[in-house]
Design goal:
Layout: H1 2-15, E1 20-24, H2 27-30, H3 50-53, H4 56-61, H5 63-79, H6 84-92, E2 98-102, H7 108-112, E3 117-119, E4 122-129, E5 139-140, E6 164-168, H8 179-189, E7 192-196, H9 208-214, E8 218-222, E9 235-237, H10 241-256
Parallel strand pairs: 1-2, 1-7, 2-3, 7-8, 8-9
Antiparallel strand pairs: 4-5, 4-6
Helix pairs in contact: 1-10, 6-10, 8-9
The protein binds adenosine-5-diphosphoribose.
The site of adenosine-5-diphosphoribose has 24 residues, from α2 and α10.
Amino acid sequence: SPMHESIQQAAEWIAASKHLVVLTGAGVSKESGVPTFRDALDGLWARYDPQQLATAEAFRRDPKLVWDWYEYRRGLVRAADPNPGHAALAALEALRPLVIVTQNVDDLHQRAGSKDILALHGAIMRSKCFATCRGEPTVIDVAALPAFDPADGPPRCPYCGAWVRPDVVWYGETLPAGALQRAAELASAADVMLVVGTSGVVQPAASLPYLARQAGARLIEVNPRPSEITRAAHLWLEGPSGEILPQVVARVQERLR
Ligand code: APR
């Protein structure tokens, strides 16, 4: 079948790669039960648009609302387990030199056992001072703070008293120092880039596949729907990453045996 052939072709390129970069987005965690950004939110949060909660402006306007939304999402991430897509990428790291560049703020790649991970958008489980009172980021261990009442909003920075916020990159904010530069270097040096579960609409991450392709890399996409990357991809493996990636990695393994 055409899908079988595409998976074979992808495995061939990946098995021969020397500088493999895997760019992941929310789709890779979807089968773990973590909603993507373009999905409608469930239940209590259905009337909110994530793009209007994930901004410094929204936090300034209503810190409790935004903090509560992140508490809800932290709960989803805590309850989730890595899926076979995450596991396949962790297994692939033992077969080829690879770096995962992720837009995800969950910790599912780490928990699946991947080691070389460049997190472009921060980490939802980590918090920092909203006023960056001791430099960017002023990381705060919320679990170590004195008890606070969530009805009063987020906890306060123990150094300066400003609000504590999640250590994630909000719309309109710049990426962590050095992260974008390293990602761009990796993309430019890649011979194969595997793009998994991203809509490709949020910059600057969305430009990385184009950078890699321009520099001569083979571009392979895994996504059940077309994205802004699809037209640039040499191969589109149309399907959920939890089903496609284990098949690809099994073929890579066969080729390297
Ligand atoms: N397997 C693979 N891909 C999937 C799956 C799946 N099972 N289910 C859905 N997808 C795809 C969707 O088709 C879509 O293209 O995952 C993509 C998710 O897109 P977004 O929700 O836009 O997520 P992402 O591209 O990671 O968003 C980028 O935007 O909101 C900001 O900072 C946030 O990191 C995020 C960034």
